[in-house]
Description:
Elements: H1 2-17, H2 22-30, H3 43-56, E1 60-64, H4 70-77, E2 84-89, H5 92-105, E3 111-115, H6 118-127, E4 133-138, H7 145-154, E5 156-165, H8 181-194, E6 199-208, E7 211-220
Parallel strand pairs: 1-2, 1-4, 2-3, 4-5
Antiparallel strand pairs: 5-7, 6-7
The structure holds S-adenosylmethionine (SAM).
S-adenosylmethionine (SAM) binds at residues 34-36, 39-41, 65-67, 70-71, 88-91, 94, 117-118, 139-141.
InterPro entries: Cation-dep_OMT (IPR050362), SAM-dependent_MTases_sf (IPR029063), SAM_O-MeTrfase (IPR002935)
Protein name: Putative O-methyltransferase YrrM
GO molecular function: O-methyltransferase activity; S-adenosylmethionine-dependent methyltransferase activity
Amino acid sequence: xxxxxxxxxxxYLIDHLVHEDQALADTRRSSAETATPGIDVTQSMxxxxxxxxxxxxxxxxxxxxxxxxxxxxxMARAMDDDGAVVTLDIDPAAAQVARRNFHAAGVAExxxxxxxxxxxSAEALIQEQAEPFDLVFIxxxxxxxxxxxxxxxxxSHPGTVIVIxxxxxxxxxxxxxxxxxxxxxxxxxxxxxxxxxxxxxxxLQTVGLKGWDGxxxxxxx
Length: 221
Ligand code: SAM
């Protein structure tokens, strides 16, 4: 089937291009100890996020959705020693597993996990007048993605890069009458960005190990 071909090609590309050490492999496995196992980004997406951090020279990264810390580790490792990742998750089990993984991966000093509803944590960062972030990765519950984007804009500077995962959802993004809150969230996100002159954006569809999906890339003007 087409999906088998997409997965086989993804595996071939990952085998040749993406080096995953023991700490990263263990991190992926350890998502079994969280409330939502197995929904981390693929190895290729992890490497992509790391490259994006390096290309942009990001020093401060904000992440919505930690899970076991897989994407956080890719981004933290791509930063200089003075870099910082703040990652937000509602699941205390995930936060505990992630902290263990950050130690094993050698990035514990650079990564801060904040436990609680991500919108509340983001609002706390705004209240604290946190230094703006250079790159934001939004990968938590999809229904609140528009709110996460709004909060991210408050925590950004001109040039901040925002990546939002899972915006295609096997094409379900086209279902305008969908009763699925995740689809409604992504469609509301699209309308928000369409009407917002503060952002330049695009989105790319992807196929591979995780089926047919896509991610959105935006830059704060
Ligand atoms: N970025 C991670 C990676 O690639 O390794 C994967 C994150 S996973 C797709 C989504 C995470 O969002 C889960 O760990 C879940 O606990 C968290 N989450 C769900 N609802 C949330 C909320 N309201 N606030 C914060 N985190 C939430």
